[in-house]
Amino acid sequence: MNGLNKGIRKVEIALKWDPSPSGEASTDLDLVAAPYRASDPHGEPGYVVHFDSRSPDGTITLNRDSKDGKGFGYDEVMTLELDRLDERYARVVVGVVIQQHQARRTFLGVGHPSLRIREGYTVMAEDDFGGVLGATAATVAEFVRDGSGPWEFRSGVQGFEGDPATFVRAMGVSRRP
After folding, report:
1. How far apart are CA 82 and CA 59, in angstroms?
2. Do 106 and 135 meet the contact criterion of CB atoms below 8 Å apart?
3. Within 10 Å of residue 76's Cβ, how many Cβ atoms?
């Protein structure tokens, strides 16, 4: 039956958090995604999708971007159309970055952060960043495929400490099993 398995096709990554208390600097979390070539799945990404951007072919799109966590429901939403992604890409890594505008902030200082990853109505993973409270960023998902085979999901939140630009360069290294 493996020949009938279409794998993961279209995924939604959704992120929400509470706004900062009155008088404090706003909290800004950002979803970031990067596809990696089959020839170098842990090297430099083909491109990076983050706030105010989308993939060149429209397969990875940030549908909603919040700079303060104000609003109803999920504040940031990103769609990955893996079934349309060029075959030269064999890996996509998704991360969350806390912008470090006025002061250093970790997930411990973010009010009720929450992550949901789903395909259609099927929830694939949920997390509250409780395992990475001292981190300033985290990888939250990895999607991989062999050749032109089906996409597979590897869950797990892994923390990172450093500035957002450094995180984007480091997020493609091998993830811990």
Report:
1. 7
2. yes
3. 23
CA-based torsion, 99, 106, 36, 81: positive or negative: negative
* Predicted confidence (pLDDT) per residue in 163-174, tens digit: 777 888 888 886
User: Which residues lie across from 51 on neighbouring strands?
Assistant: none
Structure tokens at 121: 């109505």
pLDDT of residue 27: 86
- CA-nearest of 56, 45, 21, 49 to 33 is 49
Tell me the mean pLDDT in the region 133-148.
93
Select from 31, 29, 23 the least CA-distant residue to 112. Answer: 29
Token look-up 């491109």 returns 47
Q: What letter would DSSP give residue 167?
A: H
pLDDT (0 to 100) of residue 69: 66
List phi, psi (to 5°) of 86.
Answer: -50, 140
Query: Could you give the CA distance from residue 45 to residue 41 in angstroms, rounded to a whole number?
Result: 8
> For residue 16, what are its two tokens?
């929400």
CA distances, 136 to each of 103, 162, 165 (Å): 11, 6, 12
How many angstroms separate the CA atoms of 49 and 144, rounded?
Answer: 17
**pLDDT (tens digit, 9 = 90+) per residue, 52-104?**
777 888 899 988 766 666 777 788 899 999 999 999 999 999 999 998 877 78
pLDDT of residue 1: 38
